[in-house]
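User: What would this chain look like folded?
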Amino acid sequence: MDITRTQTLRRDWPGPAAVLALLKPITWFPPMWAYGCGVISSGQGLESAALAAMLGILLAGPLLCGTSQAVNDWFDRHVDAINEPDRVIPSGRMPGRWGLYIALAMSALSAAVAALLGPLVFLAALAGLALAWAYSAPPFRFKQNGWIGNAAVGLSYETLPWITAATAMTGLMPAPPVLLVGLLYGIGAHGILTLNDFKSIRGDTAMKIATLPVLHGAPAAARIACIIMALPQLAVIGLLVHWSLPWHAGGLALLLAVQLAAMRRFLADPVGRAVWYSAVGVGLYVIGMMLAAFGLRHAALITIPG
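Assistant: Here's the prediction, encoded as structure tokens.
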């Protein structure tokens, strides 16, 4: 094989670094963290279900989340050429239709691993895959509307992994308190996703992608994001008080108070400080998730009716 043909083949196949860039490991943390919260909140001992916990974390992060990133980058390659031309597909590091092929292969692998964790987890994984494709791909392309798209991602990244983990650990549908708290944190994640939209206002406007900053303007979108992040946390605090868990509720209240202080600084310059608030506010938000999960782990709570 001559040198020219070898170079051509190398250009036709993505390298390992390009594949990893497509799957974006940095984005795997939220669903993996939510899955961990679900494991904790289930009340089960890790020693009895360590394999299920590890497989589930692999499923939530590298597989399902990695799949969603590949799907999104393939169908967003045109807008990425405007907003972020250095991304792996518009830059040419992922040649041809390899972005689509990897998304399809990752979908099949995710479903296969989910099947190992039981029928309920398999169905949850199929729901997550459906949302991942519907978010980015036509004809649905939920991301065209910030209200719908961010809701789909929030539920997929936070609520679904949380509930799936609790199901995998017990083999049963989670108790109502676990379902409720997992749902509330998924709703709050809508605000987190809105923060991510501030960096791409120019390209989203050009491509007619109706994110909240495009629909309502940056100042109003920032207020909406803050409200959506804060209200579910207030609800969780109230529930923990109702369930006689004052220490957990107090810890969450302190975390929320710090977030509210940071929100004031963010609201003064939404576009300039969106990345800063994503780091500060989201970090405090996810710490609160784990604190709430440990509250749910309390044996008395698992038996609370409704």
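DSSP finds 15 helices and no strands in the chain. If you want, I can go into more detail on any region.
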